[in-house]
Structure prediction request, 290 residues.
Amino acid sequence: MKLVTFRHQGTELTGVLNQEAGNISPAAAGEDLVTLIGTWQESGPRLAASPAAPIPTAEVELLAPIPVPRRNIFCVGRNYTEHAKEFANSGYDATASASHLPEFPVVFTKAPSTVTGPGAAVDPHTAVTSELDYEAELGVIIGTGGRGITKENALDHVWGYTIINDVTARDLQKNHKQWFLGKSLDTHCPMGPWAVTADEVGTAPLDLLCTVNGETRQKATTADLIFDIPAIIETISAGITLQPGDIIATGTPVGVGIGFNPPKFLQTGDVVEISISKLGTLTNTIGGQQ
Ligand code: MG
Prediction:
């Protein structure tokens, strides 16, 4: 099932997307996606079995599936081997050590106010950064929460998936050592275009493609994650209780802007498109509406 959050006639709603029919069956007013995920045993079958009168997709503005997460988005850094190498070699990794491959998952977060939707403008924040970069990532959405979740049980806690662009201000990431500032500028977490339930996505590796103005920059498979989704969930939940609707960005593959010589930073007007198999395409323009 594909779930979308959208604005229709001034009202924000969540609903089930029927791509073939080009419409959305809305949930009740006030039932946002995090609420639905928290009651999925009841709400999931209800949404699947008794669709409400559909709204044509053409009449709505899609928003991020979870426009305002309850708390920070968990993120994993340096989680693809070739990207870990390009980051270490770029000179932008203030934590670089002799080994560019992490021994343990590198976990940081992005503020909830970073989230923006499909088609929305990404603020270039030219007053504070001149080194804007993209990071195409598979996003995991937690269903049943918990602490001390083991790898073996981890996928039972995954509600679904979405696409995330972990937009990064490289100069801030480098200068301030700790990554939070460089990762958390407003609008620097495009998400969407929808959220897809885990049963529809399955467990096979997903193909990921990122283009900037049509030029391929990142092309990878999630089979190449250094720490896979169960390992990430086990690590984070060891001492932090995961909650329904928590989001985890799993890391980006090789091909980010700082991997090039000279670096290819994003400029106003650039169009970043991220496609992941079974999850659609997330498109955002730097500094402007599409
Ligand atoms: Mg990232």
Remarks:
- Residues 94 and 178 are 8 Å apart (CA to CA).
